[in-house]
Structures are given as structure tokens and as C-alpha cells.
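Lecture 7 notes: from sequence to structure.
We start with the chain below.
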Amino acid sequence: MTATTTPQHTALHAEHEKLGASFTDFGGWDMPLKYASELAEHRAVREAAGLFDLSHMGEVWISGADAAVFLNTALVGNFAVTAVGKAKYSLICNEEGGIVDDLIVYRVAETRFLVVPNAGNAPVVAQLLTERAAGFDVEVTDASAETGLIAVQGPNSAAIVSGVVADDAERAAVADLAYYAWTAVTVGGIDVLLARTGYTGEDGFELFIPADRSPELWQLLIAAGEDNGLVPCGLAARDSLRLEAGMPLYGNELGLDTTPFTANLGGVVSFKKAEDFVGRAALEAAKEAGPRRVLVGLKGLGRRAGRGGYAVFAPSSGATDEAPREIGVITSGQPSPTLGYPVALAQLDVPYSEVGTTVDVDLRGKREPFEVVALPFYKRNA
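Predicted C-alpha cells for the same chain:
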């Protein structure tokens, strides 16, 4: 987006203004950063429930007899084995194996899938899918502008969603819905594709709807959540929640200079499928060679937090003539509201990536100790 480009608004922009949101530009969209307190919003999701506008995300439909084999060629995952009603996390890569975007793919029918890319990458992903569809019996439809997406996240999310669906059968469907699965429900006369997915580390749901019905659904959920501690949440809380859950953010942990193996996402890549997917040769070579750096979790042993871009160094031996040896960089970091200490994601040289290793982070000229820890930092009780 250039300096003269006006940020886009979701269909819920007026609702956010009514609630007094502070806005920020995110991927070319004017999105709520917070409403009152980002800390209170974060805690609401961990303890009760939060409501998020995700309508800036992309929605691309893939339909046709070759839908599964096409996606197996365009993306790194194996969608031929994904059952109808299920979802799969995946990546779209370039020929060099770099990550163009991470996304979720829902199998809606035998020959119909919904691909959900990140907001800033949605036009690029839609264009790449269209280009890669040549020669396949598929239709690629970018429905991003016509689709709204609202998320309810937190331990009370199931109770809230169950309280707004049409009848007992749909309430049972909500209760029985598995993680990374979807079902069709009706809320206030609005047809909803309801998915049990999210980006917070909590139980939660994402509701796909026609964009022009978004304000109705938002207001229904606000009213239904009043007795369950539901609060509207902005991108600041979303970021701190996903960081605690050890979830990557495109542009921070993921990018064109990152392969799935440096991002600890090698398991997402299916080399068993027959299709020669885009980037396969490069990724096979990268797997064989092994990554030089890998993504790790860091726990601050002091009170100061590391931030994205801060350099990571090997611990000093104490020798006066020792030169600092840079071994990595923080990709995301901040104090953890839930855990009470600083946490960070970082790309580290492999020899320093073992859990329990102590490293130093340059916090604006002063090196402070951090410890490599297992991810995620926070995991909810089942």
C-alpha cells in the first residue's frame, strides 16, 4: 500500500467506531488495534471469551472435478486425504521453496474447497491459484470482498455460539464439532459456515458469512455473550495471544526467505503425495541439507522483553577479548500477560536450538539472558 492509498474497511468498521476502537493499518486494512485495554482483551480470551473481526482475511473457493489434485499441485499439503467437513493448515510456496503464505483449507464437498489466506497476501494467493489452475478442471473464485469473518475465542465460546444457533440439532452440532472441522448452522436467519479454528491457543470458532450480514451477526454475538464475559478484541490482543500459543505470523516468522523447515513446519509438507507441487524439488533439497537456523521459543530470564529484529548472541565466556557472536534474531517478542515473563520467537543457529540452552539478546545495547524453551509457551487445559 502506498502513502496515498486509503486503507480498506470491513463491513464492521462502523461497529468498531461505535465501540470506541483505536485503529491501525494492517495489510492495507483499517482494523481495530484495541477498544479500551489490550491487556483486558487478552485476559478475556484466556478466561472467558473475545470477539474478533477477521473480515480482512481472504476467501478463495476452489471448485471442480480436479479440485483436490489441483490443490495438491498448488500447495504443499495432501488434500486428497482431507475428509469433507475437515480443515487443514497448509502453505503456498514459490519454486525456490520460500513461503508465499500460510493458510487454512476447508473441504466443503468432494469437489469444493475454501482456501483462507492472510489479509495482506490474499490478492497474491488468489492470483497464484488462478495461474496454477491452468490445465485443471477447476474454477478459482476470489470471494474475499463478499465474505465476512467473525471469530469467537475463549473457554466460553462454545456456550456463546450454542446460544445463538437455530435449534437443538445445531446446538448438538456445535458441541460435537471437532478441532479443525466445520459445520453449517443458522444464526438469526444468517447462513453460517462455522469452523472450530482460531489463532489464540484457546477453544474457539470462526464464522464465515455474507459480508453484508456481518453487522447483524456481530450484534447478535455481542448480546449473546454479555453473560459469558465476551468482549470485543483488537489486533494487539490477537498478537499477544498467538505469540503465547507459539503460532507464526506471516512477515515475522514466515516469508519468502523462509522455508517450512526453518519455520518448524516441515510436517506440513507432504512428500508422499504423487503430485509435483510448486517448490517440491527445492524443498526436497532443503530437507536433505537441513536448515542452518530454526524457529525456537525463548523465555526471558529477566524482566525486559526482546522485540522483533533484536539480535541474539552466543553466551559470553567472560574473556575480555571475546567478540560477540551473533547466532540468530528475534522474530516476535513481548511480555506474556498470562505467564508473567517475557517470551519471544526467534530464528537461531541449529547448534543453539536445543531446549535448555541459554543465549543472550541485545536489548538496545545491553545483553540479557534468555532460555530456549519448548513451544507453545502457553497451552490451555483440555
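Points to note: The chain has three domains: 13-55+146-244, 60-132+259-291, 292-373. The chain has a mean pLDDT of 96.
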